[in-house]
Amino acid sequence: MEPIRYPYSKANCIFFVVLLATIVGMSIPHLIKFIVIGDFVNWGLILFVDLLLIAMFVYLFVKYFIPAFQNKIALEINSEEIISYIKDVSIKWSDVKEVTTVSGRYSSSLYIKFKYETDHGDSIRIGLQYIKGDNEKIYDTAILYFEQSN
């Protein structure tokens, strides 16, 4: 069977980057107000939260946004293995005991349970929020390749 490759989701990357930038942008007037009135407790608190959000923004930008706009592959499913480039992990179907999905409010995750304990524990979660494609279709494809490998 031909390998199936799913790219990063540009839409979700843009959403999360814009969301974090908006939150930081909305806090700037409050930060300036507390600096002007000399309220160093609130000033320090807002600055600390902003720095955390900026760090998260940079992480998301480098980890997801840039690869999405370079049209890189986020997930590959083939007859021998499933490869998550997001998690930088390759899992042989021969090591897999079960593939399940858990649907969340905004996205789903693939849960891959191993036949034995690995470096990742007895299972691994592959979030689908940054992967372009229908979550159910991705899950069905993973199940199809898993069943054909056994």
Low-pLDDT regions:
none
- What is the overall pLDDT average? 90
The main sheet comes to: 4 strands, antiparallel
Shape: elongated
> How is the quaternary structure best described?
single chain
Put simply, the count of helices is 3
Helix proportion range: 40-55%
- Provide the gyration radius in Å: 20 Å
Give an account of the 3D structure.
There is one protein chain. It is built from 3 helices and 7 strands, in the order E-H-H-E-E-E-E-E-E-H. The chain is an alpha+beta fold. The strands form 2 sheets. It has a 4-stranded antiparallel sheet.
Which terms would index this structure?
single chain; about 150 residues; alpha+beta; 3 helices; elongated
Concise overview:
The protein has 150 residues and is α+β, with helices and mostly antiparallel strands. It is 49% helix and 29% strand. The chain is built from three helices and seven strands, in the order E-H-H-E-E-E-E-E-E-H.
Q: In terms of topology, how is this protein built?
A:
Layout: E1 4-7, H1 10-37, H2 40-69, E2 73-77, E3 81-84, E4 89-92, E5 96-103, E6 108-118, E7 121-127, H3 135-149
Antiparallel strand pairs: 1-2, 2-3, 3-4, 5-6, 6-7
